[in-house]
Amino acid sequence: MHSSSFVLPVWHAAHEARTADASQLADLLCASRARTLALVDAYAQTLGPALPVPYAYQLNPPLWELGHIGWFQEFWVSRNPQRLQGVAADPACPRAQSLLPQADTLYNSSLVPHPSRWTLVLPDLVASKNYLAQVLQETLALLNNSPEGDAALYFYRLALLHEDMHSEAAVYMAQALGLPLPADLALARPCTPPKRQVDTAPRCQLDATNWQLGSTQQGPGDQPQGGFVFDNELMAHTIALPAFEMDSQPVSWQSYLPFVAQGGYTEARWWSEPGWQWLQSGQGRSLPQARQTMGPQLCPRYLRQQADALGTDGWQHCHFGQWQALDLAAPACHLSYFEAQAWCCWAGRQLPTEAQWELAALRAPDFQWGEVWEWTASIFAPYPGFVAHPYRDYSAPWFGDRPVLRGASLATSARMAHPNYRNYFAPERNDVHSGFRTCALTR
Length: 443
Known about the structure:
alpha+beta
């Protein structure tokens, strides 16, 4: 397998998490919990112990998120009498009572409607932390006596990666609400970004090939893997890909800003119909602090330009409520799928499919990924023959209307940064650390 020096340590950490034995999992679960609690403490310093946040369809109340993390681990591990059966477990098998009374009615995301989570009477921060500590103690005790093997460890690995996802969601929430976060929490993993090239980055050339998309319990590029696999990654099938070339790195701010400067956010011809409707609704418009300077049409949402600002051309980007000079060589970030589409239309390029992205990530030596989640042209859909795993609501409810994102962002735990991982968000989301790269067919 060929891959860039930037990608290798990220991919290896994800592979190790998916194949971790019981002892390694214990350490990883504790590390994940430490980040969860550090993020909650950072929220509490700003919001107070009640952690109040306004209702938003893409957010959850922080106290609910905290309890849900504990409930999920308890429900699928210590309360699950079939936990050793892995994906063969019956999700509806009878369970013992939770350590926390009423936990099922409070935190089961499959049964508790999203809007109602703001009106629930939840345990306070101290009680929530105690619940999480008790659950983790039970989990570690069971893990200490667990047999090895993919089936026996499946739910422990699922609980680990589930908690990592929610920690990253807490970073998105801080961005959306403008809450400050310490740098060591905003960045989930220490890494040195690759040497970026502005405007002159080479493009990866890929020959026509038949690419196996999806996993058969083999690793990326047919490397032996075993271990944990998400249900939506399974059911390997062959995709015939014609020759194409692809950006070796995500589109930079240097490349994106001319679209803004040339009025790209005021011309409907560059936008899809849903994208233009989203833009006109005001969801994609800049923050109030930027509107005071640039007018209501400025986009992207977290960008502004001030003549007297420090930095190149006065461009600034808002990170967790703080305006910073824009790094023009950095990947354009906090962009919606609609914005990625519109830029591609303006530039005469196209978003890659997830098959093209995966092939390039695993076969092109110069391919750099891991700084931003990358929108693709693929809609999140089941691979042929899809079978849901016991956590039925992880994939199936979201098929059909969300684009796939590939890669990882700097807010993503290294345990989640796997080249087969399929992320999926609503196309209007711009609080996510998301960008894009482009490709074109070659003849």
